[in-house]
Design goal:
Blueprint (H helix, E strand, L loop, with lengths): L2 H11 L4 H4 L5 H26 L5 H12 L7 E6 L2 E8 H9 L5 E17 L5 E14 L6 E21 L2 E19 L1
Antiparallel strand pairs: 1-2, 3-4, 4-5, 5-6
């Protein structure tokens, strides 16, 4: 188990399990879930920056791709846009990372900023909760040989899934809420 999951479990074990038993999320628990969701989005931002950097060794990029994939729900897709076209392409998470790593620039700099919830968590019929986090991504790619310099800013909405899971600790089954990232949708691209 990674340290964040252990910390997250510890938070829930130290608080009342009443909200879990009723499948409701108390305000204190919601705050912990929101913090975990934002932390996972910030981790994804770091991973994308590492994968996209031309300074990153191939083996390290692959290791980081594996870690980044663990943040996502199965089947999640990531959107790609450009100021040069109206089209938005969507790729499965791993394929997106592979394309990012293979970009034809000598230098790539990707930064995320203004990360915030835009929708509160809403309970779904299957018992999961779904919310949306919005981020802005600044992309800069430079090719030394051609002198090409591309920059854009993209607003993206990241679907967040919160669902109850179970784990075994010291022979006891413990229920906890986990956060998984879903599709990353492009909503706006500008120069």
């Amino acid at each position: 188990m990674n340290n964040k999951l252990i910390l997250f479990l510890g938070l829930f074990l130290s608080t009342s399990m009443v909200a879990l038993a009723q499948d409701n999320i108390s305000p204190a628990r919601k705050q912990a879930i929101d913090s975990l969701a934002l932390e996972k989005v910030k981790d994804l931002s770091k991973y994308i920056s590492i994968i996209g950097s031309k300074e990153t060794q191939f083996s390290e990029a692959n290791r980081v791709m594996d870690r980044a994939e663990e943040l996502f729900a199965p089947g999640a897709e990531m959107g790609v846009s450009s100021i040069n076209t109206q089209e938005i392409a969507y790729y499965k998470v791993r394929r997106y990372f592979e394309r990012l790593m293979a970009l034809n620039y000598d230098r790539v700099n990707i930064t995320w900023y203004d990360i915030q919830y835009i929708s509160d968590l809403e309970r779904q019929p299957d018992g999961r909760y779904v919310g949306v986090i919005t981020i802005y991504q600044r992309f800069e790619g430079t090719s030394i040989e051609t002198g090409m310099n591309y920059k854009d800013t993209t607003k993206k909405d990241i679907t967040i899934y919160v669902e109850k899971k179970q784990t075994q600790i010291a022979g006891r089954t413990i229920e906890f809420w986990d956060v998984m990232l879903g599709d990353v949708r492009v909503t706006e691209t500008s120069a």
